[in-house]
Amino acid sequence: MTAQIIDGKALAEELRQGFKARVEALTAKGHKPGLVVILVGADPASEVYVRNKVNGCLAIGMHSEKVTYDATVDQATVLDKIAELNADPNIHGILVQLPLPKHFDEEKVLEAIAADKDVDGFHAENVGALAQGNPRFIPCTPYGVMKMFEKGNVDLTGKEAVVIGRSNIVGKPMALLLINAGATVTVCNSRTQDLKFHTRRADILVAAVGKPKFVTGDMVKPGAVVIDVGINRLPDGKLCGDVDYADCLEVAGQITPVPGGVGPMTITMLLANTIEAAERKAALAD
Ligand code: GUN
What we know:
single chain, about 290 residues, alpha/beta, Rossmann fold, about 15% strand, binds guanine
């Protein structure tokens, strides 16, 4: 059996088209959604992500700007900028691209962002709301994965879901969303003993471990839904996920490709969160 492919690129485009009317309506009422992305340093991958985030906003009529700092900037300067943006009525979303240079206290920087502008969903208040099953902002990558389940009519209730990866950006919020949706959730990592024992039981398998082709076909339950969150660059320059796609394609029931799977959905859900932030602000102003 060859798996059905979940096309993240097509779903992302469909959703973004749908956002345009919401952006127009907000703009007409004087609440044009605005996102600021802060980039510290010149990591090439982060530069690409930040450019795509800003361009994604502009393409659907939102306001967006990038604020860049040299890697040697002191934390106080970035905190001052965040305070200024927190107070700016034209800015609805603030995102600090991670990772930050070593001399930064990442948690302190993320906590400095006003919770109602935290479109990444990384502020402790928003993480707590998600854990309690009452989310305000859902972290963009796992939010995108949930939209893919919705599109693929994947029923999560009572299913065995295994997440490989325990990061604050993907693994943990993904696990919380699956728990909230009624799945039976196991969170593994690259050092889990007998990982295959867990993954072979999974009806839903999410790989967010950051290791190229880590999940092979023999680790997958026949018919499972396999979601690949990884974006790894191989020595030959090609992109590949955490899943050995060719190997798993013949075993899985549904699978996401890399590129063109989860990647385009992440920025799409960032746009969704920023529009949502602007809609909440507009509702308060009415
Ligand atoms: N670095 C990698 N993924 C992300 C993300 O979703 N948000 C931010 N802010 N930084 C990241």
